[in-house]
Amino acid sequence: MPGGPPTDDTRLRRNPQAIRAMFARVARRYDLLNRLLSLRQDVRWRRRLIKTLEAAPAGPVLDVACGTGDVALAVRGRTAVGVDFCLDMLVLARRKARRRRHTAVWVAADALALPFCDGSFAAVGVAFGVRNFADVGQGLAEVARVLQAGGVLGVLEFHTSRRRLVARLSSLWNRWVVTPLGGLLSDDPAAYAYLPASVGTFADARSFAEACRRAGLQPQRQTELSGGIAVLTVARKGGEE
After folding, report:
1. Can you give the pTM of this predicted structure?
2. 128: closest CA among 111, 115, 142, 144?
3. 204, burial (CB in 10 Å: exposed 0-12, middle 13-18, buried 19+)
4. Residue ranges of the chain with pLDDT lower than 50?
5. Which CA distances in Å does 95 have to 92, 104, 151, 163, 237?
6. What pairing do the DSSP bridges indicate for beta strands 230-237 and 217-225?
7. Contact assessment for residue 116 and residue 122, using Cβ atoms and an 8 Å cutoff
8. Pairing between β-strand 105-108 and β-strand 121-127 as defined by DSSP bridges
9. What are phi and psi of 103, to 5 degrees?
10. What is the pLDDT of residues 221-237, one digit of tens each?
11. Which of 124, 115, 129, 126 is nearest to 151 (CA)?
């Protein structure tokens, strides 16, 4: 990529220590770069995710891989819990919560080993975190475990688009904007080579829906956002506790 650093293979293997360290280094500029590099579309995408979580049965909401807490902080009228394995991100989330006088609870933990009892949550949201999981199947199994029967999972994620034009335009945007600008403004230039590259090594939308099904989460719908740049997957846990 012109002007960009090489992609770190350790990150592409989803090594947890490498991923945690990467997010720690980019935390300071993470929100700014999200807005810039998505042209603020990430704000609109998260609103769609929040509406999905609001449609869940009554009960608390869990924001997995919460980062700086945007999803948890948008929850109103329910208990909101944000969980992330990067302490630097959680520090920023807590500061934002104090400024907004939001009562969200922040927990340091790995998404693959959630420290919650079975059936603790009515809804779980994940915004652009699943493709960083070391083991997607295990992560989805943990989500299924902590969801109550009838609970809703909403996942915002980037998948390689089936639309050739969208896939091509996304590739060009990543090559000429995301990697060089992210590298210039962040404290870890290689992170913004990894983040686009990680999409190509992640499941496509259909395969991800099948992974949800294998974990006991029945896909309800997949909605392409901004022409298919991002996808909102909604699944529900069936059966009885």
Report:
1. 0.92
2. 111
3. middle
4. 1-4, 6, 240-241
5. 5, 11, 29, 40, 33
6. antiparallel
7. no
8. unpaired
9. -95, 20
10. 999 999 899 999 999 99
11. 124
Which residue's structure tokens are 């810039």?
36
Environment class of residue 47 by beta-carbon count within 10 Å: exposed (0-12), middle (13-18) or buried (19+)?
A: exposed
- Cα gap 170→141, rounded to integer Å: 30
Residue of 155, 141, 150, 159 lying closest to 214 (CA atoms): 141
CA distances from 43 to 54, 55, 80, 107 (A): 17, 19, 19, 23
Residues whose CB is less than 8 angstroms from the CB of residue 218 and which lie 6 or more positions away in sequence, other chains included: 212, 235, 236, 237, 238
Q: Who's near 238: CB < 8 A, 6+ residues apart?
A: 149, 150, 216, 218
Instruction: For residue 154, give the nearest of 43, 229, 53 by alpha carbon.
Output: 53
Q: Which domains does the chain have, with CATH numbers?
A: 27-161+203-237 (3.40.50.150)
pLDDT tens, residue by residue, 107-146: 999 999 999 999 999 999 999 999 999 999 999 999 999 9
CA distance linking residue 130 with residue 191, whole number of Å: 16
At 134, the amino acid letter reads A
Residue type, 150: G
